[in-house]
Amino acid sequence: MKLGEGPMGSNAGAAAAQPLAIEARGLVKRFDGFTAVDGVDLSVPEGAIYGVLGPNGAGKTTTLRMLLGIIDPDAGLRRVLGHDRPHEVAHTIGYLPEERGLYPSMKAYDAIAFLGALRGLPLAEGRRRGKALLEEHGLGYAIDRQIRQLSKGMAQQVQLLGTLVHEPRLVVFDEPFSGLDALNQGKLEKMIRALAAKGTTVIFSTHVIAHAERLCDEVAIIAGGKVPFAGPVDVARDRIRPQVRLETRSSDGAWRAALPADARLEGAFWHFSLPESGIEPLLRALIEGQAGILSLSIERAGLHDAFVAIAGEAAARALEADKGEEAGR
Amino acid sequence: MNSSPTGGRLSTLAAAYVIARRDFVAILFSRSFLFFLLGPLFPILVAGLAGGIGQQVRQNIDRPQLGIAMTAADIAAMTRARDDLAARLGQAVPELVTVKALAPGEAFDPAAAMKGAHTNLAALLSGSPASPVLTGPADRITQWQGLVEMMAAQSASDSPRIYPSVQSATLATSRADQTQGRVLTAQLGQTVLFLLTMLLAGMVLSNLVEEKGNKIIEVLAAAIPMDAVFLGKLFAMLAVSWVGITVWGLAGGAVWFAAGHSLNDFPVPAVGWPTFLALGVIYFSLGYLLLGSLFLAIGSMASTVREVQTLSMPVTMLQLLNFFFASYAMSRPGSTVELAAAIVPFSSPFTMLAHAAQDARLWPQAAAIVWQLVCVALFVRMGAALFRKRVMKSGPARGGQRRGLIARALTRS
Questions:
Q1: CB-CB: which of B224, B393, B396 is closest to A118?
Q2: Which of A27, A277, B156, B179 is the most exposed, fewest CB within 10 Å of its CB?
Q3: Which residue of A57, A87, A118 is in closest CB contact with B396?
């Protein structure tokens, strides 16, 4: 089967309905005998916000690098904006790597113009847009400052603006929230939403589930170089049955027999998965059994629970550890 | 949908130009370029100081004197004879220093006198003009024996010796002078070429390491082909070096001509100065591109400055060997050794520049340039391929089992 033919992955429906900005099948990358990425399939619809979710070392960066043509896969196929060679469409892509880097002696607006020039934007136009972007984002006072004179956070913002100066159709961010304070994380989330609203496809990697949950239309969960799930966030959450929380006046009685097998009592509350048959038969049994319902709520599973269910406990623990490590920095 | 960007897809050459322009401007306006420009002043200054001090030392210490211990009349006669000879032979005739004017028949121990207070005494002349005795180390006796004989013979003569006057017919140069001079020009050309290529190739390597340190290499790799990064860096440094050479040439030339000299003060190379200088620029460029591409490929394999140093050291040594090889070949014009040195890519520029100083024929130069261009294309391509393969290689280090540099260099990506 070739790329672009037929459905792929868990979001087959979406892939068939929407044109794809990125399509990858069976991507494999080995380093010195170690398989960093092992048969990754991805389908990123045009105009979507797409998250690549996984702990550090899961293969996120290597996957993104292969998609961008920075490194070539050892096996598998990739297609970016309709091209097999990503460099052919480099002028329509923006990329912010995890390890940010700019020339320290360059002035802020020149750094933006240079990043634009790398993507085919004429230097003079890049300088003009660079100054305008800096003004627009409240960094007008830093236009003529050298990068080495800026704080780390400001330099990151300059690089982010340089990633967008040529108005790309596809923007790839590798761990974009890493190193940003809460205020700037909020600004970046807003910027990502604004990009998507204009029709730009945004794909970003993260090990923070909350960002993906808030922003993404679709996610790929990656662990150990493999992608056990790729598709809409809702589909991921639906992998786990909704959780029911029940509080009763009566502590025992015939109604207990109606509770599902996975029901567990935590304090005053019973917790269990919503039965296949739905809530109505259970409600009837509880009422008829005189349980004395004080409260009952049905909660849809979060992405974190979905991640645990899909990627496993070990991957979830690694994700939490990465988050803790970053918070400690 | 977005408005389409003003620009478009960059070709490899256009992308290389973006990199080259950035690097060129950044280097040109950096402090390190100022030091680069001032670089040649330091060896000149050191050489000048060392030369001046050496001359002073020679003046103070290194003028060996010939002591004399004879009767006063004999001393006077020998001194006259010495002055007469010195007027014709100049510095070759040693200064006579009276150690002791002896009374007739007075006994004298020259060996004991040599151990006396005269620090610059190299030998001592005693006896009489008719039967002179030269006491001193064997080599000094060998050196001065003939002169002493001439002085003694002259002093014994009553009338001053008549020397016939020599008519002179001055020529600009002789065949022997020309050959010797051209060898000097060839050596000078080779040395300048070697120093420049090593300096510049080293600078392009530092530039790449800095790039890795700035972590911008990934941004470049995502936007443009790695070949373009490689070419851009290589040619930016070449352009910088041309600026440097132009500045040095103009400054040096201005000083030289202002002092009333001309190019003809140097031994004229066989192909003539304009062609020689043009060939110098061409061979410098080709030599630099060959070595620079190798150094960049090395830089792509290393991730730290220490690794760069470790890897570049053998290459530097090999290049030194190439330089010696070319220097040796220069002394064997027309031999198989010279042909081999002209064919080996890394020694070819040195060899052919020296050849241009000694041989006026241009076709060997044209053939060498074509050959070197082929080698440059090959090396740049191979270097770029290695650069592309290695520069973004970032496998995780597992369990501290990081593989050795050589192993990594030899492993297929």
A1: B224
A2: A277
A3: A57
